[in-house]
Write a structure and sequence with these properties.
This protein is α+β, with helices and mostly antiparallel strands and 501 residues long. It is built from 12 helices and 24 strands. Strands 1, 2, 7, 8, 9, 10, 16 and 17 form an 8-stranded mixed β-sheet that branches. The chain has an 8-stranded mixed β-sheet with strand order 5-4-12-13-14-11-15-18, with helices on both faces.
């Protein structure tokens, strides 16, 4: 029987993020996927700033910023008349990570490259078929007949998750829409590629987003169209033919449709796992939550799950923390998924409004609200997920100066012990950071975190008046100057899964 410390099921963005995070902390990982090989179709095509930050902390960002587009504008038309223009600007949360129009396939490739550098690789064509829990591990049966004994099993295997079903975790939800059609098409038309364009039309909405073109032709577009009223599942040829009709009809533009790079369809379901953990089996990404793709929140939320879980599992595997720390994973991430589901469900209902009153609100009221600068700033802030805070969770604290325990710490300038300048987020990922005021001691604090966290922590200097202990995922763990207080916080957090109150 093969053995590993963590078995990850699903080599999409979530599973790859988790595997990279665990490897950064020295944890042995096996990553399996039922697919015969990496996906080459684009699927998700937007990664907000928070997702870029996660990839940066993992060392997986690579050349994605240079390869992506910055289509940070959405223009909405009613007929041939532009009625709203939404600009995605700087949310003012001090990040060096750019939001990117980039295909999920490219994000996954960057993560695979990083995982290979860390000594790992996905095992393709390998599915999970059974899992039996034991007091100190999970015995997993794979599709090739092999068995693997792992200390922990994490399902990152999508909305149809085998892992979730084997764990007996419910996945309740509701259907929100009829079918949407998706396509990545070569188009010859005069539409501006500096932003996304949407059209409001009685039969249903149409959206067009420019896509990075690996061939350098600059004619590749992602199209999405609401296409209700059909019970059959169309073939790829039928989807393409529907776009040949829908595109000129709803955009009221002359367009020549060339080759199709990818064709698909989906209906919107809102689902949320009843829990994220059953014994030694955990869920992350789409296996734990399913929602509409509007707003680019799916891949973003999944990689956030993976990063949050990685450092916690690593502490437990390395016997530096009790498994009760894992209770904080659900406590921190499930409320965020609930918020994302609520927001994307609202956008879905607005997009598919079919009754006269609903269409009036959408076409004459809601769309125009997005011309307001306040609404545009709020939209940028919300979709970026840079606002995400765990201060209400078991490791957070609602009092004191900002940032408060649980809050994201901005990408501050810092100084390493050897005197070289750096940025905070560049020092995270594989370790914690103890930020000390530029002038002062700190040896007693450094000794405490070293004793509690081992060698996966570094001391840095910054322009502040209090020490701050920052988690590997860039959230504040503790702040203060009292060594005994820091020791007490670490003991409570690592052994009991809660902060000192």
């Amino acid at each position: 029987m093969d053995t590993t410390q963590v078995l990850v099921v699903g080599a999409g963005p979530t599973g790859l993020t988790l595997a990279c995070g665990l490897r950064l902390h020295g944890v042995r990982v096996r990553l399996i996927d039922r697919a015969p090989g990496p996906a080459v179709t684009s699927r998700a095509n937007f990664l907000h700033a928070r997702g870029s930050e996660v990839l940066g902390r993992l060392g997986a960002l690579g050349r994605l910023p240079e390869e992506s587009l910055r289509a940070m504008r959405i223009t909405t038309y009613l007929g041939d008349r532009p009625i709203a223009r939404l600009e995605f600007g700087d949310p003012g949360l001090r990040t060096a990570a750019p939001p990117m129009v980039v295909s999920q396939a490219r994000v996954e490739a960057a993560l695979r490259d990083r995982l290979e550098q860390l000594g790992g690789a996905p095992e393709w064509g390998t599915a999970l078929v059974d899992a039996r829990q034991e007091p100190d591990g999970v015995v997993a049966t794979l599709s090739d007949g092999r068995t693997v004994r792992a200390s922990w099993l994490v399902g990152c295997d999508g909305t149809g998750s085998t892992t979730r079903k084997l764990a007996g975790i419910g996945f309740p939800g509701v259907k929100l829409s009829e079918r949407f059609l998706l396509a990545d098409l070569r188009l010859d038309w005069d539409l501006d590629r500096s932003g996304t364009t949407g059209w409001i039309h009685p039969p249903g909405m149409l959206g067009a987003m420019p896509m990075p073109d690996p061939e350098g032709r600059n004619d590749l577009w992602r199209l999405i169209a609401y296409d209700p009223g059909y019970d059959d599942k169309p073939s790829e040829h039928e989807i393409l033919e529907r776009f040949r009709k829908i595109l000129p009809e709803r955009s009221e533009r002359a367009v020549h449709i060339g080759d199709a790079e990818w064709l698909s369809l989906f209906t919107v379901h809102r689902r949320l796992a009843e829990r994220y953990r059953q014994g030694r089996i955990l869920l992350a990404g789409d296996a734990a939550h399913a929602h509409a793709p509007f707003g680019g929140q799916g891949m973003l939320t999944g990689v956030g799950d993976g990063e949050n879980l990685a450092w916690k599992l690593a502490l437990i595997v390395r016997e530096l923390a009790d498994e009760r720390l894992l209770d904080t994973y659900q406590a921190e991430r499930r409320p965020l998924a609930t918020d994302v589901l609520r927001g994307t469900s609202t956008v879905t209902r607005i997009n598919v409004a079919s009754n006269p009153f609903g269409r009036f609100l959408r076409d004459r009221v809601v769309v125009k609200l997005f011309n307001l600068s306040l609404v545009q700033r709020w939209t940028t802030y919300t979709t970026s997920q840079l606002w995400v805070s765990y201060r209400k969770g078991p490791l957070g604290d609602r009092g004191g100066p900002k940032p408060r325990p649980g809050d994201r710490v901005p990408d501050l300038p810092v100084v390493r012990p050897d005197g070289t300048a750096s940025r905070l987020h560049a020092e995270l990922g594989r370790r914690w950071a103890l930020l000390m005021p530029a002038v002062g001691g700190g040896d007693d604090l450094d000794a405490i975190v070293g004793q509690r966290l081992g060698d996966h922590v570094g001391m840095l200097r910054y322009d502040g008046d209090q020490a701050m202990l920052v988690r590997p995922d860039a959230h504040l763990a503790w702040r203060g100057s009292d060594a005994a207080g820091l020791d007490r916080w670490l003991e409570n957090a690592l052994l009991h899964g809660r902060a000192t109150r």
